[in-house]
Amino acid sequence: MAKETQKIMYKLVLTGGPCGGKTTGQSRLSTFFENLGWKVFRVPETATVLLSGGVKFADLSPEEATKFQENLLKTMIQIENTFFELGRTCQRNCLIICDRGAMDASAFISKEKWEAMMSANNWNSVELRDNRYNHIVHMVSAANGAEDFYSTEDHACRSEGVELARELDYNAAAAWIGHPYFDVIDNSTDFDKKMNRLLACVCHRIGIDTGDRLNVNSKKRKFLVKPPMVSDTEFPPFQDFDVVHNYLQSDFRKAQVRLRKRGQKGHWSYIHTVRKFHPTGQSVEVRTQLTHRDYLNMLPQRDDAHFTIFKKRRCFIYNNQYYQLDIYRQPTHPRCRGLILLETYSAHDQDALLATLPKFLIIEKEVTGDPAYSMYNLSLKEDWKTSNKYYAGSEDYTKAVILGHS
Known about the structure:
Largest sheet: 10 strands, mixed
Order of helices and strands: EHEHHEHHEHEHEEEEEHEEEHEHE
Oligomer: single chain
Number of helices: 10
């Protein structure tokens, strides 16, 4: 439902620990999208290119290892930029698959050295993680949940044992926590179905309808969390963001239009979202990444019927499931005071999902599709009982189309 004539350039990162299926996944994605008429570019893994030249981490001093990671990242950025430029000039829809991305380098050095490297090169996490790529998919290593199939054979640069592979897998996932479109493909199914779940996940994010072809039932699930918040020490590694939402003027019966500003430490990313409604009850979201200037130009179109929504968004992984915890902040409508909502995408049935929810949070109830917890309704200045703009639809069937950088 996006503009049919607007070309899509979609930048995807496949990451994960050893023996997770990244290579096979690239091949399956390439074949699938080429059959749809897309142009597909596959960016090679920079580390493999350099390590195959004789570099061994065990032979490097700590200083040499840090410098190697810095040069690796510079090389990766330049290689990726070459493919991104090809994607921008391509006349067809274009999928660019990166075998790992910029943030993966942070998994191999200490936080202090990483921060020093970022500062020395004038880099920041919001640009390298959130604004550089449209979508991150973490392919969980076979060493985590499919140990019988973990192997170091057929890979010249792989020598990790199971325990080290698990650690590398966890660190690779932690490096990307906080990206707005981050999915985890675990080993809860056989390998062929794992590949189908990867295809379905990418198609869903882009907005390609595959029908029953890939047989995936993943959907957005939302839960009400009882305050107060537990201490930070109860959480696994997490990333916190400041998030600001503004609804823009529109005919709400046909579409909801909003701006989102999301950032850390003064660095921001900007998204424009149009959510369209159709007689079938299905809704389609078209998301476009904006520049700071575009964002400022659109802000005057704010709808005075809505409060600006301020949140703290905490992103983390628990039981191989990626979660976003939204903590509403003032100033806003009194109905949002103390409100905490937990969101995830899952294909698990009800009992299986409930068993995997974070044990350190008190979940009051599931509120998926409940209009009382729609952000559109929560932001209304009017009382719901008297408002003509109250949205009574469902969020269960939302699809997302993420267009490239404007």
